[in-house]
Amino acid sequence: MRATAENVLLTDLYQLTMLQAYFDQGMDGTAVFEFFVRKMPAGRNFLVAAGLEQVLDYLEDLSFGAEELDWIAGCGRFHQRFADSLGGLRFTGEVQAMPEGTLFFVDEPVVRIVAPLREAQLVESRIINLLQLQILTASKAARVRLAARDRLLVDFGLRRAHGAEAALLSARASFLAGFDGSSNVLAGVRWDVPLFGTMAHSFVQTHDDELLAFEHFARSHPKATTLLIDTYDTEAAALAILPLAHKLAADGIVIQAVRLDSGDLGEHARRVRAILDAGDARAIRIFASGNLDEYAVQALLAAGAPIDGFGVGTRMNTSADHPFLDCAYKLQEYAGRARRKRSEGKATWPGRKQVFRRFDDHGQMAGDTLTLETDSHPGTPLLVPVMRAGRRIATSPPLAEVRQYAKAQMAALPTALRRLDAAASYPVEVAEPLQELARQVDQHRG
Amino acid sequence: MRATAENVLLTDLYQLTMLQAYFDQGMDGTAVFEFFVRKMPAGRNFLVAAGLEQVLDYLEDLSFGAEELDWIAGCGRFHQRFADSLGGLRFTGEVQAMPEGTLFFVDEPVVRIVAPLREAQLVESRIINLLQLQILTASKAARVRLAARDRLLVDFGLRRAHGAEAALLSARASFLAGFDGSSNVLAGVRWDVPLFGTMAHSFVQTHDDELLAFEHFARSHPKATTLLIDTYDTEAAALAILPLAHKLAADGIVIQAVRLDSGDLGEHARRVRAILDAGDARAIRIFASGNLDEYAVQALLAAGAPIDGFGVGTRMNTSADHPFLDCAYKLQEYAGRARRKRSEGKATWPGRKQVFRRFDDHGQMAGDTLTLETDSHPGTPLLVPVMRAGRRIATSPPLAEVRQYAKAQMAALPTALRRLDAAASYPVEVAEPLQELARQVDQHRG
């Protein structure tokens, strides 16, 4: 059996133990689960919906193979009739969700699953796993984009992302949320994320002469050359490439940029800019990387650092200041009756919900209302049907289109919520019909 | 082309651009790269080596398939001769490494790759990606084990780990570092990690009656039943299960434990323990989960909370207080000459290195010496050969055996380094031959 992301056994054991109990009791009513974030990370003002695409892939492909069924039957925890019952299990339910790229807030359902109980329960672990990661990195990347203004932004985080899938999906999520591309080749192949790359220090070090390393690299990549100039002495390297740049230009080879990756990036950028300008190399851009996040990028630009692009890795891909979300996938209705969890500090709003968003005269977001799906309310409903009877309703848009939608969403973000350094609160009102349902459920303890 | 962890294109673009330049220049000398951690995360006293197994798998399987070669030839960045040259590329080098479970410190090489330049360069991105994740989670898990003393410790973090591979590999790494098991079914299938699972709140909520939910679950799992009692009112549920426990016992069904997942876990545990003891149910254990890490576990046990086991998820799997390591894979030698990077704040020790560890009379670690591989020194050498000519030298030990080795390593950890709340420093001396080589390299700027 292969231990891959696609294996249905990538789930928590309790999903299977609950499924056997449901099977034994013949409980197969319709269950409604919603995924939402319980708490806004400190200092954050908004979240970006992402990961729905991978959730729909997962639901469409969900099934137990022969090896997985054998394992379940043979592991000593389950009985044969239960294992047999899983053989034909597919996801046959429906999904309503916010389109990827939608901005959202605490308690607002991002994805709703409506399906026979066993199907809806089984998928909890992987749905949270997929949605949390991309919401986390898309939301972080959107902040880096706010800080970077119109500068080039490239995801450099493959190496320190948490494993292969995190590297791939954070490349996807950061592009969706406004990055210009990634160094991750497979993400480029898979989703047409534009690819960027320079050279490593090791390239310079394998050569006895730094300048010879630059020339070798440029001649092998005449169309797109960025030289990493901080291996030994940044300013000395900047000075040394001036005659090289003119020599290469004669052969039609253009040095597009230099990359700085250590030390005081702002100070090096200023000195290197001065050296390049004085040496008649104004066209050479300056690209910076190394320990960057939205705060560092904002500080560099606020100080006027002449940096044209940023490689942002680790801290974006791992959402380092908030590497997880307090999020949940909770039962809201079963067999036609609304349900609610009342655990301390973790109470949830019951029932099938919708979010209506209002905009002001300038197209800025003005406030959301959380209410029952059946309630009609002014504003734009954010959740839309995306899957019926276990199949996508429509072909998914290409990622570049999702990115345009996210960009439009960001353009509607109120000014107070665009700041990185101060938490602002966006009005999300809980409508009376939903409050009333919560009271009713409490009375009946459902 | 499938976007999976096994795809050789899961790499940074610059690896491929550098490879083309090396190809064009005919540079194919032997390169030596070492992976090491540059800086100890604040408050941490040691790190646990982990992930070597997956690195060796990756190196043994490394190759470009037809689809990947077509992409490279057709993407507009590379020439056909270069793409063709990759067709036969395999990893043919050797690897020396610290066995998984070895404790290590800053600047100490954990894995060394010695191979023809292109092979050794290409693998950088994925090697860092694999090693960082498991070192990070194993090191965090080892701290949770220190805090939890002999209590049961289960990985509950699949849902908020960063994607599928992070969920799997953090389950593996935490078991390696002293956890007793995981809720992650696929990790159990793949590495024989013992599996644990209870029920979710949704299970209780789908029933109109909490006690009926408990009975249904217990009857479906007569051999191993843990009941989640905090959905509505923890103490009321504890009281209510007493008659149920006695009724089920008559049918040979044993309630092993109750799980608490919200509120003040220590206070609830004390009250629930009192209720269970007073109700002649002393055998029922108390298992706690929810927002736990090593500090929370330590505080609960220090306050005498009667908790027999902990489910630790999110904060362990994401290493939430330090979600990344300042680690690197750096060129140390090329074509027989030692090399060194001198970028500000990122200078490295050149050459092929070994770590010798000394122990005191009580078997406690007494100090390490970092020196050249060719230097002989008192103590135990930590790096051993694990791969030659691209193949493992020996079959890898089962994970349970690695776990035993890690346990022995932890037993040798000096008392000062076992504390969670104060950084202690462990002596790592840089021997004179290595310092001398660094001076020589600087003179020659290699």
What this model shows, in words?
- 2 copies of one chain form a homodimer.
- In chain A, α2 (52-61) packs antiparallel against α6 (124-148), α6 runs parallel beside α13 and α11 (234-250) runs parallel beside α12.
- The first copy, chain A, is 40% helix and 20% strand.
- Chain A folds into 2 domains: 13-137 and 322-444, nicotinate phosphoribosyltransferase (Alpha-Beta Barrel), CATH 3.20.140; 149-317, TIM Barrel.
- Chain A starts with 12 loop residues before the first helix and ends with a helix.
- The first copy, chain A, has a 7-stranded antiparallel β-sheet with strand order 13-12-1-5-3-17-18. A 6-stranded parallel β-sheet of chain A has the order 7-6-11-10-9-8. A 4-stranded mixed β-sheet of chain A has the order 16-14-15-19.
- In chain A, β10, α13 (294-302) and β11 form a beta-alpha-beta unit.
- The first copy, chain A, is globular and about 80 Å long.
- Chain A is α/β, with parallel strands linked by helices.
- The mean pLDDT of chain A is 96.
- Chains A and B meet through α1, α6, α7, α8 and α9 of A and α1, α6, α7, α8 and α9 of B.
